[in-house]
Amino acid sequence: MLSSLLSSFFFLLALQSGVAMAAPDLLECDQFYLATNSSDRCQTTDCMCRVRPGPRPVNPQLIEEFDRRYSVYFPSAVHEMTSVQSSAAQDYLGELHELYPSARATVIAYTDACGSTSYNTELARRRLQTAIDELDGLFRVTHTLIHPEASQLCPLPEARRVDIIVHTERRLTTTIDKIPADVYLIDASGSMWPEWRRWTDVINASYKPGSRIYVSMTSGCRRNQRINDVSPGGGTEIWYAYWRVLDWMQPGETLAIISDFQSDIPLTRSEHSIISAKVAERGINVIVVRP
Amino acid sequence: MKNKILTATVMATLLGVYSAGVYQFSLSEIEAREVLQSSMERPALSEDNRESDKRRILDVVQVREFITVDSNLPVPGADCELNVEESETTEEQINEDLSTCFDAIQPTK
């Protein structure tokens, strides 16, 4: 008898759940726009796809097609290049110089988090100067940046380095080149990139090694796709992607967003404040690039 | 015999709970249908009434502050914004903006 009672109970419970599921409008109608299920508006998960940069052509002919970022790695607490490193740098950068003699360069120096902040700042400055000296007679260095303690990890060999970035003449590409972000979120909606030439500025940019790149699209991209294979299209859902990507970032990381932010559905004041509060709460640095 | 009575009682109770649940979930649907039905039977509103309704709705919207921002800018949470116009922005301008930007992000370094 007990088993028949239990089975009846569970049968009725299941029926009850079925009724609840059949009335989703009752459950969702009052929800906040950003918190609603993005599948209503986007075929992609969370209105974005994580992509990979490149690939570069096998036989590059133009400066845009080259890997324009040259990284030099140092042992712990060292700021000078070995003769082998110096020679290799001269060979690679010399090749770029022959192709585009009037190009300008940016140098970014990093350290890991071993030692005090003041020591790492000074070490980054010395590494920066080493790279600037190396470029003497090749490229004019128009911008420098020191990024001590780029990561909070110690030891972290990949953070003990200098990046020398040779720029093209395209402004957007140059701007992205110069931002050492941990995450790049690129609005790939159709209205944002009416000309293919402008989108190639994004494709040709040199992204910080080890960074994560996401394209915000309602459809037409897939996870781990090469950015060269992405064709911009669809509506703008950059706000949802921005709000969501913050969940996947660590405190202190930098997010660079490339977008015009002209979404079909404007943000309300409360959504504006909620995003600001989330950024502050998670301790993320946000840099916006508006083409 | 006792068992049969008990089973019947419990079954009746569960059926009652279930019926109440279904009724609760269907209530708003029933109400919505009634409202729709009554509005179909009602004669069309005059121009003045429609205007008056519109004003009342807008008043409610304003009171509840469902006002969208004129523009989405400035971007919420952004430490700095860089405008990159291909024809108008010089590299010096970009450099200056970037320096300001990184000063804002790394004030202690």
Question: Could you walk me through the main structural features you see in this protein, from its secondary elements to its overall organization?
Answer:
The complex is a heterodimer of chains A (291) and B (109). In chain A, the strands form two sheets. Chain A has a six-stranded mixed beta sheet, with helices on both faces. Chain A has a four-stranded mixed beta sheet with strand order 2-5-3-4. With 291 residues, chain A is α/β, with parallel strands linked by helices. Chain A is built from eight helices and ten strands. Chain A folds into two domains: 39-58 and 170-291, 3-Layer(aba) Sandwich (Rossmann fold), CATH 3.40.50; 69-167, OmpA-like domain (60s Ribosomal Protein L30, Chain: A, 2-Layer Sandwich), CATH 3.30.1330. Chain B is mainly alpha-helical and 109 residues long. Chain B has a domain at 73-109. Helix content of chain B is 66%, strand content 4%. Chain B contains three helices and one strand; from the N terminus they run ααβα. Chain B has helices at residues 2-41, 47-63, 91-105; one strand spanning 80-83. In chain B, 10% of the residues are buried. The chains are: A alpha/beta (291), B mainly alpha (109). The interface between A and B is large, with 57 and 45 residues.
| DSSP helical segment count of chain A | 8
> Architecture of the largest domain in chain A in CATH?
3-Layer(aba) Sandwich
Terminal-residue CA separation of chain B = 85 Å
Helix content of chain B: 55-70%
> What sort of overall outline of chain B do the alpha carbons produce when their principal axes are compared?
elongated
Q: What CATH first level of the largest domain in chain A would be assigned?
A: Alpha Beta
Strand order of the largest sheet of chain A: 8-1-7-6-9-10
